[in-house]
Specification:
The complex is a heterodimer of chains A (134) and B (159). Chain A has 134 residues and is α+β, with helices and mostly antiparallel strands. In chain A, a hairpin with a 5-residue loop joins strand 4 and strand 5. In chain A, helix 2 packs antiparallel against helix 3. Chain A starts with a helix and ends in a 22-residue tail after the last strand. Chain B is mainly β and 159 residues long. Chain B is 8% helix and 45% strand. Chain B contains one helix and 13 strands; from the N terminus they run ββββββαβββββββ. In chain B, a hairpin with a 2-residue loop joins strand 12 and strand 13. The chains are: A alpha+beta (134), B mainly beta (159). The interface between A and B is medium-sized, with 29 and 27 residues. Strand 1 of chain A pairs antiparallel with strand 13 of chain B.
Chain lengths: 134, 159
């Protein structure tokens, strides 16, 4: 939080000095490093936590669609999430870029897993009673 | 960054989902090219200047072209054939090196298979001059954009 406070102060100081604020680049940088894994390793990771949404997705897509015997590159945060039973959230920050621009950077972070709750049992609809015959 | 030939560069297909990608190397290919990375220009001609000048317009439809040899890498062949006939999009990455290496850069884009011809020359290897064209693709509530991979990370360029 103090980093954001410092950045805001710096931006205010620039403007107060008559300077121009750096524009934000019209792009987002997805800073998600990868890891190269064999399909057998990925399958082992999936088997450790087969109910995880990412594991389910990989089982449905990667394992079926990848050429056998060839490694794949997956994002490290995704693999870590499966192994540690965490959820992946995307955190976007605005940072100073190389040039006279600020850039939006999106990084995957691990957060505690939301347990899937089963929907509450619904009451069976009660049929309207027929009006009493007179 | 150093000079290198195309055979050391890499083409990948995303066999996972856009949110949780898994990049599979596609290496049973010949020449690979991104021939259409061009920006549209609006010509400005006026009495006040002797020069025609240009205003930047949209980046034009991006494509990846490559020679897929027939009979090799059956998984990729099956995927391209299926995507061509069904009109299904997939993500591809055409990079200068291996995914994740610090000096690797290149294009990542959601793509449709636009061309999938089947060449059967008498005295040359049979194959397919595949052309992938950028696709409009919404998934998970957002629209996928072409992006540039640089230093192992991906920049999504909104165009």
């Amino acid at each position: 939080m103090s980093k954001i406070k410092d950045e805001l102060k710096a931006r205010l100081a620039t403007l107060n000095d008559g300077g121009k604020e750096k524009p934000i680049a019209p792009m987002i940088i997805r800073d998600n490093p990868t890891i190269k894994v064999e399909l057998s390793e990925l399958k082992a990771a999936i088997d450790t936590n087969p109910d995880h949404p990412i594991a389910k997705s990989w089982a449905k897509t990667t394992l079926k669609k990848s050429p056998p015997g060839k490694p794949v590159h997956v994002e490290r945060a995704d693999l870590q999430a499966v192994l540690d039973d965490k959820d992946v959230a995307v955190k976007v920050t605005i940072e100073d870029g190389d040039d006279d621009m600020r850039v939006k950077v999106a990084r995957k972070v691990l957060v505690p897993r939301k347990k899937e709750t089963k929907p509450a049992a619904t009451k069976p609809a009660t049929e309207p009673k027929e009006p009493a015959k007179t | 960054m150093a000079a290198k030939t195309g055979h050391k560069m890499k083409l990948y297909r995303n066999t996972g989902s856009p949110d949780s990608p898994s990049w599979s190397l596609v290496d049973e290919v010949g020449d690979v090219s991104i021939p259409d990375l061009t920006r549209g220009l609006a010509e400005l001609k006026r009495r006040a200047s002797d020069f025609t000048k240009n205003l930047a317009s949209l980046i034009q439809s991006i494509a990846i072209e490559f020679r897929l040899h027939n009979g090799l890498d059956e998984t990729t062949f099956d995927a391209i054939r299926t995507n061509f006939f069904s009109g299904t999009a997939e993500e591809w990455a055409c990079l200068s090196g291996e995914f994740g290496d610090s000096d690797t850069e290149g294009l990542r884009l959601p793509a449709l298979v636009e061309n999938f011809p089947f060449d059967q020359p008498l005295e040359d290897v049979a194959g397919h001059d595949v052309r992938l064209a950028v696709a409009y693709w919404e998934t998970g509530g957002y629209e996928l954009e072409p992006s540039w991979v640089a230093d192992g990370v991906t920049s999504s360029t909104y165009i």
